Amino acid sequence: MPLRLSLPRQTIVPLIVACGLFMENLDSTVVATALPAIARSLHEDPLRLNLAITSYLLSLAVFIPLSGWLADRIGARTVFGSAIVVFTLGSIGCGFSETLGQLVATRMLQGLGGAMMVPVGRLVLMRTIPKAELVNAMTYLTVPALIGPIMGPPVGGFIVTYSSWRWIFFINIPIGILGVLLTRRFIPDLTEEVRRPLDGRGFALTGLGLVGLMFGFETIGRDLLPNQAVGGLLAIGAICTALYALHARHTPNPILDLSLFKYVTFRANTMGGTLFRTGIGALPFLLPMMFQLAFGLTAFSSGLLTFTSTAGAMFMKMTAARIIRRFGFRRVLIGNAVISTAFILSYALFKPSTPHALIIATLLAGGFFRSLQFTSLQTIAYAEVAPAQMSQATTMVSVAQQLALTFGVGLGAMLLHLTVWWSGGAELTPAHFSFAFLGVGLVSLASLPLFIALPVDAGSEISGRRAAAPSPRAPSGP
Questions:
Q1: DSSP 354
Q2: How far is it, in rounded angstroms, from Cα 27 to Cα 267?
Q3: H or E stretch including 19?
Q4: Are residues 260 and 249 in the same domain?
Q5: Which residues contact 355 (CB under 8 A, 6 or more apart)?
Q6: Distance in angstroms (rounded) separating the CA atoms of residues 277 and 237
Q7: Which of 26, 133, 238, 321 is least surrounded, with the fewest CB atoms within 10 Å of its CB?
Q8: Which of 9, 27, 20 is nearest to 179 (CA)?
Q9: pTM given for the model
Q10: Domain of residue 217, residue span
Q11: At what angle do helices 273-281 and 390-422 cross, to 10 degrees?
Q12: Over the stretch 374-407, which tens digit does the pLDDT of each residue have?
């Protein structure tokens, strides 16, 4: 009997893509919770097991820039479906790993699949959903990004406590099979008529640049590498990134198209969004650490608290389109940057004596506004992008988001490290976390000028909000 669903394409396609992204987001955070159990099982030092996380991130960094080129060459549906297969095979390999070397190798295979799933999943939406429906479609993509990191600790803690750590990877098998079947059934196979040659030199430079920056920020404040090694990684990343910027100016088909930054709406997403997401990206690291180390809660209780922000994100899904249509992208992004920062700063006031009901209410409301901001940023990025540049745009957005999340964790760890050092090496206390929340909140607020620079009618074709007159500030095409 053929598989049939009554949902319209504007709903079923985003749901399929969101399931793939949820699998990737959940897996990346569940593994962190399970590292001690995995270390005991494999008879390894828990610190060495951190390679299971960093190897995944490095693989992700290297292959994300290749995703748009592959999608143009062989089709977005084919690449997205293949990415789910690769990620699922990597998950099976992780579950059967008996040594650290096997686990690192299969995690790198997962990273290859994840690198293709995220940007190509967005590209599938761009090529199948009309612009007028993008706000509703994008809400399905913001939810996995918020739920995955929050669900990771409680899910990982539950599995490790009541079953084997290997099920952390095996639970991806049914999700992967379902994702492949739904992709083949409901997602059209669209390719670009003009096929760009591969920018090999640019691929090498972006790979080295992203690996240096991401690995460098990932290890800041964690005492995993000497400070000189961390500084060297960051320097290599910055130098290779600068060299790529020079290379892209003189290459007809660069692997990452920097000309997209001429669009004010694209800049709002990639530059303003990176600052905003950096502050938000520190929360899945700081909140569980504070609840467990400073408040004395169990890992499971901490996970249940942080999970409450998911409910706010889910409620946003029902209201985002109406809010953006009513106020427009510019006012939503400006207002949300201020409101979301206020919630981050409010976390600095949490104490062990703070009633859990108040913590839950604050996290719930914060989750709503952060999710609304993510939906707005995700959608407005493509407001001015031409169809021929869509694969480049989705790749660039994915690179920026991955960097922001990595920067966020690194920033949170660095701020905690600095506060502990300043206080003379004392154990972590609520005061240490208060300083960290103030720091990451101010970084998120730094995105405000880029949102203020948006025209009043920015993204009006997508939001459905009519403006009095077209603004002359944004270019009308490439």
A1: S
A2: 30
A3: helix 9-42
A4: no
A5: none
A6: 20
A7: 238
A8: 20
A9: 0.77
A10: 199-254
A11: 50
A12: 888 888 888 888 887 888 888 888 888 888 877 8
